[in-house]
Amino acid sequence: MKYQNLLTNGKIQCTLCPRQCILKNGQRGFCHVRRNINGNISLETYGYNTGLAIDPIEKKPLYQFYPTSGILSFGTLGCNMGCQFCQNWQTTKNKSDCTQCNKSSPEEIVQIAQNYNCKSVAFTYNEPVIFFEYAIDTAKLCHENGIKTVAVTSGFINPEPAVEFFNSMDAANIDLKGFSENFYKKNCLAKLQPILDTIKYACNKTDCHIELTTLLIEGENDSEKDLTAECQWIIDNIGDCVPLHFSAFFPNYKMRQTNSTSFNTLIKAYNIAHSAGIKYVYTGNLTNQETSSTYCKNCGQPIIIRNGYKLLQYNLTLGGNCTFCGTKCDGRFE
Prior knowledge:
Strand order of the largest sheet: 7-8-10-11-12-13-14-15
CATH topology of the largest domain: TIM Barrel
Structural class: alpha/beta
Order of helices and strands: EEEEEEEEHEHEHEHEHHEHEHEHEEE
Number of domains: 2
Radius of gyration: 20 Å
CATH superfamily of the largest domain: Aldolase class I
CATH architecture of the largest domain: Alpha-Beta Barrel
Number of strands: 18
Shape: globular
Distance between the termini: 37 Å
Number of helices: 9
Oligomer: single chain
């Protein structure tokens, strides 16, 4: 394992993510799946997953990456984030023996994707950064067989491994969970700045198609001040054409007494982002046709009309150009 530092007394520092866990022999990191085994970091979940599912690509969510195509999705156990509102806590916080999970080698995952005509494979459901080796090996085989790769990630990764990670992905949805260090410290047990650094790197220095998602929790990260600051940071650092999704929180894990996010809150965020100048804005998991659809950044006509994940109308040429004015839509299209 290359992302580690050997220390004294048999200890190792894992340098994969900003936590920089220092581990005694036999000790696991914060993520609970990376362990010091006799002086080397071992990924205990390599080859194990919590299930495979075929999803529409829009469910990741990726709205401008081969729309309506099928994607084979899988994840493992554990996470390097400590989100108190985790929507997948049954697996991310699960400390069970991973050998009780399903077992699928990278070769088997590629074979399943081929058997079901999936255009892409997604590393999702839990944080793919922590099953780095399993994801990278699978991604390499996918590319050898003409299959695209997608990461759904918090972006909590150190700069050096981020190069290898994002160069192995064709697309990623990065969770920008809030826009204050206080929110990340209180609700994610993490830091905001490393995520911002990851987003800037992935958008500006790689060919990976990036979309962002902010899950809104009323009273925590939905203030007009924070949303305006987030949108301005996006425009200033990665441009106005990176798709931005706002999704709704539902009571879960350690925030079960917190109210669900209303559609009005999503619409407020949607309007703030549009007013700031972001060209592609969406609402997710509480949605309607207007806020699910993609609009041409030049003429404003609807070029992909959706209702949730269902495609109703497609007004793009084969090259991804608007049929009304000819302007190319940002993204990847057949």
